[in-house]
């Protein structure tokens, strides 16, 4: 069995070409646009804008990514300009030059349920600081910033730069998913994270300017640490290798209301689901496990019935919570199989491999869309699917 991940950083012989809202990617089913949603937070009107764009310009659905972003598929040629205008009018495109760099993950339900503090102000301040700095437009589209309120969900996802609350008064700067030993107060933490982001670009330039991620640089975290603040002044804490929590189902909020954390099967929100979500709450949050949280509900049971009726999953034990897949045929010309149809059939008949363990189905060896952590890979080959055990 082959390894699901390379043991050494890849050698980058080309510039990062991650799609954006304006810089689309040509696929077999049309153009693909990726809209960055910092912290996964979407107002209801923004969700409606995205839904209308998917129906009128694309294939009618929204794809959720493992970074809490949104993709529109099947866009007709030349639709990127109109999409950009719609997104800008809805406040989803604050900077044309920085739009592919805005990969910001925030703890799910931060400020509403659990956590040591509210990470949402960090997201807003970091995003504003990033967009205001012309130099940060050079960030690769794979760069990821994480903002964890102490619950240990997004800190585990290997952000290049991150903030992890250790208490209400102390925050760790994480680099490449590990504690740097540098500390800040909650009020000063965003400035430290932005400084580390600039230091990454400086170090990247000195090492040839080709790396897509901090971990791909030689001694990247150590060198960025020195550039930002010299020697670490605190004992390092362990950052979880896997999210400590993945909110799925009904979650009691601190204010007595209820949030519903739903999984979209294969990360796809349909035209029927989008208006239901937008009607239920003033704001939703997209999750790194390709789901959506509907918060601030007075009657969680009534809303839950609506979500289940339109095909969203609220059962933590459902196999849909453990399965992801790439686009597959006919959407991707490189794929060797219609993986979405095949994995759906396996779920329906209860025939997932590896005893239903967390798994990613891929149409080729590139394994696009693979989530982080220990995941079984189910890879299409010319002679059928091969099941690869997860790496340690």
What share of the residues lie within helices? 10-25%
Whole-number count of domains: 3
Total DSSP helices? 8
Q: Characterize the largest beta sheet: strand count, sense, and whether it forms a barrel.
A: 5 strands, antiparallel
What do we call the CATH homologous superfamily of the largest domain?
Sulfite Reductase Hemoprotein,Domain 2
Strand content: 15-25%
How far from one another are the termini? 13 Å
* Rounded average pLDDT: 93
* Regions with little confidence, pLDDT below 50 for 5+ residues: 1-7
What spatial form do the alpha-carbon principal axes imply? Answer: globular
Helix and strand succession?
A: EEEHEEHEHEEEEHHEEEHEEHEHEEE
The Rg value, from CA coordinates, equals 20 Å
CATH architecture name of the largest domain: Alpha-Beta Complex
> The CATH topology of the largest domain, please?
Sulfite Reductase Hemoprotein, domain 2
Query: Structural class per helix/strand content?
Result: alpha+beta
């Amino acid at each position: 069995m082959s390894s699901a991940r390379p043991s050494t950083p890849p050698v980058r012989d080309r510039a990062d070409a991650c799609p954006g809202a304006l810089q689309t990617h040509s696929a077999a089913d049309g153009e693909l646009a990726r809209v960055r949603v910092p912290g996964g937070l979407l107002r209801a009107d923004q969700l409606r804008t995205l839904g209308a764009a998917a129906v009128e310009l694309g294939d009618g659905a929204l794809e959720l990514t493992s970074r809490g972003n949104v993709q529109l598929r099947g866009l007709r040629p030349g639709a990127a300009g109109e999409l950009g205008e719609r997104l800008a009018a809805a406040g989803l495109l604050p900077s044309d030059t920085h739009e592919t760099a805005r990969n910001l993950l925030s703890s799910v339900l931060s400020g509403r349920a659990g956590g040591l503090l509210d990470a949402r102000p960090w997201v807003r301040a970091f995003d504003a600081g990033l967009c205001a700095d012309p130099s940060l437009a050079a960030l690769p589209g794979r760069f990821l910033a994480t903002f964890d309120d102490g619950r240990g969900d997004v800190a585990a996802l290997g952000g290049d730069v991150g903030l992890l609350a250790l208490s209400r008064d102390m925050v760790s700067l994480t680099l490449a998913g590990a504690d740097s030993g540098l500390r800040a107060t909650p009020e000063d933490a965003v400035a430290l994270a932005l400084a580390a982001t600039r230091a990454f670009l400086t170090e990247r330039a000195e090492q040839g300017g080709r790396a897509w991620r901090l971990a791909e640089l030689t001694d990247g975290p150590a060198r960025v640490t020195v550039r930002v603040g010299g020697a670490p002044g605190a004992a390092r804490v362990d950052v979880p290798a896997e999210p400590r929590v993945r909110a799925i189902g009904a979650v009691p909020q601190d204010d007595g209301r209820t949030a519903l954390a739903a999984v979209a099967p294969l990360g796809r929100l349909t035209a029927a689901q989008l208006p239901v979500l937008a009607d239920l709450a003033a704001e939703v949050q997209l999750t790194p496990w390709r789901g959506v949280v509907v918060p601030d509900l007075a009657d969680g049971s009534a809303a839950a019935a609506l979500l289940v009726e339109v095909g969203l999953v609220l059962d933590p034990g459902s196999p849909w919570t453990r399965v992801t897949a790439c686009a597959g045929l006919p959407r991707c010309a490189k794929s060797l199989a219609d993986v979405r149809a095949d994995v759906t059939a396996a779920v329906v008949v209860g025939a997932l491999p590896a005893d239903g363990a967390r798994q990613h189905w891929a149409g080729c060896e590139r394994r696009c869309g693979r989530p982080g952590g220990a995941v079984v890979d189910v890879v299409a080959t010319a002679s059928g699917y091969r099941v690869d055990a997860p790496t340690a």
